[in-house]
Amino acid sequence: MLRLAVNLFLGICIWLPVVSYALVQSAPNTIVIKDHQFNPSQLIVPVGQKVQIIVDNQDPTAEEFESFDLDREQVVEGNKKIIVFIGPLKPGTYGYWADYHQDSKGVIIAK
Amino acid sequence: MLNKYLRSWVIVIAFFCTIVFSRPALAEKQVFAPDAEQGEWELENTGVYDIDPHKNKNAVQEYHYSIGYGVNSFWHTELELEAETLPTDDAITKFQATHLEWENIFQLAPKGKYWLDPGIYLAYEAPLINKQVGQFEGKILLEKDFQRISNILNISFNQEVGEGADPHTDAGISWSTRYRFSRYFEPGFEYWNDFSALDHHLDYNQQSHQVGPCFYGRLFKHLNYDIGYLFGISDAAPKSELKWVLEYEF
Predict the structure, then answer these.
(1) Closest to B171 (Cβ–Cβ): which among A1, A74, A83?
(2) In terms of Cα–Cα distance, which of A52, A61, A48, A49 is closest to A31?
(3) What are the tens digits of pLDDT across the range A58-92?
(4) Contact residues on chain A for B182, CB-CB shorter than 8 A
């Protein structure tokens, strides 16, 4: 049983990247945080594809990219970038906000 | 970013190769997601309360009080005090602090990058009571979301260490499925299984199997809840069990 568990763990390590590489990915999109505002505040992404979003924080202080609709919550440090992976999404509108400045909001539109 | 996650894998694999196991009387009833939120502090209380017609199983309780911190985007660490009533042959003992635990969650990849979100949980439990043994615990954490339905699987291994430690490896599985209806209410269910010692094949009724409804969400800003009622579906499990997690993030 222990051998099975170890094999399962190693199998996940090997096959996970392989399976993920097979999925279609679109070119990365970028959302800039400047003066605690998102730009663009509306981002259109394709339906049914895994999407990379580069969140580029051009403010000196950290911010948190958070979205309940997308189930994502990631801190991006000041003057740094992170990559957020979302999708595949069904058609619709998905809201997100800056958790440290909750007046800052945006939407991702999948169509 | 890739180097940070590669370092996590190296640490995890090294620790996994040296892991030892134990036999917990009760386990913390929390299905762990492979997430680490950088810079986030949390105060957490988890509890378990058993309801059973047998004297040595009824009102068995376990509570955990912890403080945790997201060190970076791939490592969350937590220090935890465990207190419980311990079962004996025909009754339960008084409530007492039993262990101090150091828990760590390693997020092995950015969420959503791969088909499964992987993580590892590693913990060491030091005994506070004389003549009790310590234990190492490890879990494989896997999460898969389908739109608003989140599924998390934990595969657990435990081993005792110290004088008088049980040399056998214990293993178990826990599963959580929830529908993310709103930030404040996410209905779902959980399944818990304790296979007990890996090298002793126990019959189904000698293993502990539990399943039941659970509800998750946010009570108000920064305070999250996870509450469930598990039914024993094997003889070794308590007839029913109330479990909860309250987490304050800041």
Answers:
(1) A1
(2) A52
(3) 999 999 999 999 999 999 999 999 999 998 999 99
(4) 68
Give the residue on B whose Cα is nearest the Cα of A5. B155
Rounded Cα gap, residues B91 and B94, in angstroms: 10
ipTM above 0.85, yes or no: no
C-alpha B183/C-alpha A80 separation (Å) is 28
DSSP B33-52: PS---TT-EEEEEEEEEEE-
Residue ranges of B 56-115 with Cβ closer than 8 A to chain A: 73, 109-115
Provide the whole-model pTM. 0.85
Collect contacts of A31-37 with beta carbons under 8 A, ≥24 apart.
A31/A55, A31/A56, A31/A65, A31/A106, A32/A56, A32/A58, A33/A57, A33/A58, A33/A59, A33/A63, A33/A76, A33/A98, A33/A104, A34/A58, A34/A59, A35/A59, A36/A63, A36/A98, A36/A100, A36/A101, A36/A103, A36/A104, A37/A104
CB B24 within 8 A of CB B135: yes
Quick: pLDDT tens for B207-216.
Answer: 899 999 999 9
